[in-house]
Amino acid sequence: MRSHTLAPGAHGDAEVLALLERRREAGRGAGGHHDGHRVALVVGGGGMRGAYAGGMVHALEDAGLAGCFDQVWGSSAGAFVGTALVLGHGADAARIFTDDMACRAFIDPRRFGTRRPMVSLDHLLDHILVESKPTDWSSLVTSPVPLHVMVTRAADLAPHVLTDLPDGDAWKTAMRATATIPLLAGPPVRVGDADWIDGSVGDPLPVARALRGGATHVLALMTRTVDELVTPPSDARTPLWARSLDRLAPGLGRMAQDASRHGECLSLLTDAAHPDRVGAHLMTLAPHSSAGVRGLTTDRERVGGATRIGYETVSGVLDLLAAA
Fold first, then answer.
1. Which of 14, 52, 231, 266 has its Cα between 20 and 30 A from that of 127?
2. Catalytic residue (one of 13, 198, 203, 258)
3. pLDDT above 70 covers what percent of the chain?
4. What digits encode the pLDDT tens for the residues 108-149?
5. How far is 261 from 207, CA to CA, in rounded Å?
6. In 48-150, which ranges are continuous DSSP H helix?
7. Is 195 an annotated catalytic residue?
8. What is the radius of gyration, based on Cα positions, of the chain?
């Protein structure tokens, strides 16, 4: 297994991208690969940090690799970005953050503490994804590439996977659930016989789940630079909304700040000899640099910078592999 740094932001086994390129050259398209491998795309969450992953997915689509995956996994914003890839909307996965989400209609800190959520999932699901970037949720029912959406059970903060849902309404509800944080984006969402909240709380980057589910190759898209994962920013403070969450449910505020949760799986992501990776190929792509975007950032210039960095991260490593 070739585990090494390939380009800025890229780390791991080059065989993951090599297999994707072989599949592209074979020209069989989504769901038509019969080479004995199962390739999973895992997309991290993090609110507006999803702009980095949106740029990465746009680059994957432009490179002709979007139809080369067998399954897609995502938490929170990562589930929405993963949906865009599955449905062939890779360019929209990047544009939606600057065009539609970097605004007060979607995120407005002045709403915190009122009866209206600071993050308006109604605006996202019933306006942006209906009028600006139309999304046909029912297409996920028949998609040849299954989508796995992480959610977190509100009662005990245990992670869970929603997949193989029966209709478009169920998928739309699942997407609301994976992005909902109490006090911030609305109350828990009922799916089946339980209430669910943001998937990033329980598992912000479900690489281990993809491996346990039979993936032989995993490409993981990060929404934080490596430095941001291992070194907290010098001005790091627990925000008011996170402190309020901790009063609502002890520990929830810390878990909702996904940097600490990502840190827990760094050994799996970086250690080729990790026991959970035996026999599997894993590559991670993290932004090659930071645009200064955080979960609630609405500065369009910064958010646009994040999508460009994400795109450059993927195109840069693909260019290096092509030249090798």
1. 52
2. 198
3. 85
4. 989 987 889 999 999 999 999 999 999 999 999 999 999 999
5. 13
6. 50-62, 77-86, 90-96, 121-123
7. no
8. 18
CA-wise closest residue to 293 among 77, 62, 7, 114: 77
Return the structure tokens found at 19.
């297999």
Name the active-site residue from 3, 76, 200, 290.
76
Q: What is the pLDDT of residues 174-207, one digit of tens each?
A: 999 999 988 889 999 999 999 999 998 888 899 9
Q: How far is CA 87 from CA 66, 80, 119, 125, 137, in A?
A: 10, 11, 25, 16, 9
Nearest by Cα to 290 from 235, 225, 222: 225
What's the token pair of residue 123? Answer: 């605006």
Active site residue 267: no
Residue 291 corresponds to which amino acid? A
* Cα–Cα dist 159/179, whole Å: 13
Is residue 213 within 8 Å of residue 41, measured between CB atoms? Answer: no
* Cα gap 14→6, rounded to integer Å: 8
Q: How many CA atoms lie within 13 A of 78 on its CB side?
A: 29
Question: CA 140 to CA 86: how far, in whole Å?
Answer: 8
Of the pLDDT bands very low, low, confident and very high (cuts 50, 70, 90), residue 12 is confident
Which distant-in-sequence residues (6+ apart) come within 8 Å of 3 by Cβ?
11, 12, 13, 272
